[in-house]
Amino acid sequence: MEPENYMNFETMKKLLLVAAVAVMGVTINAQEFNFGPKAGYSLSMLKAEGDGESYKFDSKSTFYAGGFVEYKFNDKFGIQGEVLYSPLGGKQEESYTETIMGVTENTTAKTDFKLGSFQVPVSAKYFATENLAFGLGVNVGIITSAKVDYTVTTSAMGVSSSESGSEDIKDNISTLNLAPFVGAEYTLENGLFFDARYNLGVSNLLDTLKNSFLQVGIGFKFGGN
What we know:
Elements: H1 3-23, E1 33-50, E2 53-56, E3 60-72, E4 77-85, E5 88-100, E6 103-127, E7 132-156, E8 159-168, E9 176-187, E10 192-199, E11 209-220, E12 222-223
Antiparallel strand pairs: 1-2, 1-3, 1-11, 1-12, 3-4, 4-6, 5-6, 6-7, 7-8, 7-9, 9-10, 10-11
């Protein structure tokens, strides 16, 4: 296993332990305790606000994967902690034209923000039925990497040129990304479940830049169900 992947794996194990301790801060009954893996699709959105104006980046499709622990106090209420790895970010494309000494030049600039993050969502759950639950909580995100890939294409008089590159911006990005969330979950009798949640980014990652994201996934519950 590569050193970087090993460190990420070790970090995930430690964070999952923290989530488990947070959930299991009560006397555990095996029939009320569930755990397992989960993974799914994320739609990440960046938004910049300032001076009375706002700008939304194009959304970015990513993924998430990790594990969870759940404790049910009774048939109606429970708590859940998770540790997930999820790349986030957003895309931007701008085009402009300028004329210099009678020559028209067209330029298109594309940027792709790529944020690697571990997430520790902790939520309170309400079980409307035996299979359907609703959750409300906060997602504590830890940004582990951040870079911007860019491509600038210029064309004039039928001749085009392109320049691409990547810039590491981790030192300029806030490490902590807090995102309150609401969601719903449907569990089948065999333990397979499907869930969806919307995470509203409230932390400034870079100046006035915030990151919100939608998650839709699948998982499996081991335990009492």
